[in-house]
Design goal:
153 residues; mainly alpha; 0% strand
Length: 153
């Protein structure tokens, strides 16, 4: 199914949420390209909710990846116990800096937010702060993309 079929069958807003979520789990589904593709299809007042719904879809996916990281720890607890405990102790000391990395990654994609989401779960960063900073960063990223392109083109 291509983006146009998805939009036709689900509507623009639900399609934005779906593409955001799928793109958050499967990196080959590029949310930014979807957003660029929908800009000429909608009026300017629809851009903000479309970008925010794509960001929400991304964070639903990142929530799953976060818990994947927690599951990884549970599965490999005995094998990597000392290394994980050492990393978790360091993260507790540097929690705010680790959360700053979450925010930076969610805006820029450097390091990849996919990997940062799994690492956040593995290292047990505070879930609500992870989700809030990730949502803020993804919202900034997607809103900036749609309005920048809409404004200049």
């Amino acid at each position: 199914m291509d983006f146009q079929e998805l939009i036709n069958s689900q509507g623009m807003y639900l399609a934005s949420l779906i593409v955001g979520g799928v793109g958050g789990i499967i990196p080959l589904v590029n949310v930014e390209l979807f957003l660029l593709a929908v800009i000429p299809l909608v009026n300017a007042t629809s851009l903000l909710p479309i970008a925010l719904l794509a960001a929400l879809g991304q964070m639903i996916a990142k929530y799953i990846l976060y818990h994947t990281g927690i599951g990884f720890v549970a599965l490999n607890k005995e094998k990597h116990r000392r290394r994980l405990q050492a990393a978790q102790e360091k993260i507790k000391k540097w929690q705010d800096k680790a959360l700053s990395l979450v925010f930076f990654s969610s805006i820029t994609g450097v390091p990849p937010f996919y990997a940062v989401s799994i690492a956040a779960g593995t290292l047990k960063l505070e879930l609500l702060r992870f989700l809030a900073l990730g949502m803020l960063g993804r919202s900034i990223r997607f809103v900036a993309i749609v309005y920048f392109v809409d404004w200049f083109f």
